[in-house]
Design a protein that fits this description.
This protein is mostly helical and 155 residues long. It has a domain of 86 residues: Ribosomal Protein S7. The chain has a two-stranded antiparallel ribbon with strand order 1-2. A hairpin with a 2-residue loop joins strand 1 and strand 2. The longest helix has 19 residues. It is globular and about 55 Å long. The protein starts with 19 loop residues before the first helix and ends in a 9-residue tail after the last helix.
């Protein structure tokens, strides 16, 4: 184990919306360090969201992300030879991270033509409370609820 916890690095806000959350999203979206391409995809997706919904794109994105972020999750723990799924609350930092990962994962699995189209589609669906990423969150919550009986094993 390490001696001390590493310091949290400050994430710089993005150039267009001046929002660090957007930069964090793009950092997870990009491949091979191509940050410019990541921003290009994200901004195109936000423009498409604005065109389709006639609402503020960045606000729709924030709503979508809030709808995808899980509040509880299950963690495996071995107790006396048996493995139990123990529900636990998600730390705020991890909540954001998991929400972003799910949104990107299920965007990539969609079958629109470009990544910007896929991401826009997933943002719109998640903002409405639909879509695969929201379903994943609901499944996670349902699993945690089903295993509530084992919460006394929590560390």
């Amino acid at each position: 184990m390490r001696k001390t916890k590493p310091k949290k690095r400050a994430i710089l806000p993005d150039p267009k919306f001046n929002d660090p959350m957007v930069t964090r999203f793009v950092n997870m979206l990009m491949y091979s360090g191509k940050k410019g391409k990541g921003f290009q995809i994200f901004y195109d997706a936000i423009d498409k969201v604005e065109n389709r919904t006639k609402e503020n794109g960045i606000e729709t994105f924030r709503t979508a992300l809030n709808n995808v972020m899980p509040a509880v999750e299950v963690k495996s723990r071995r107790v006396g030879g048996a493995t139990f799924q123990i529900p636990s609350e998600v730390r705020p930092d991890r909540k954001i991270s998991v929400g972003i990962k799910w949104m990107i994962l299920y965007s990539r699995k969609r079958n629109e033509k470009s990544m910007a189209d896929r991401l826009a589609g997933e943002i719109i669906a998640a903002a409405k409370g639909e879509g695969a990423a929201v379903k994943k969150k609901d499944d996670t919550h349902r699993m945690a609820d089903a295993n509530k009986a084992f919460s006394h094993f929590r560390v």
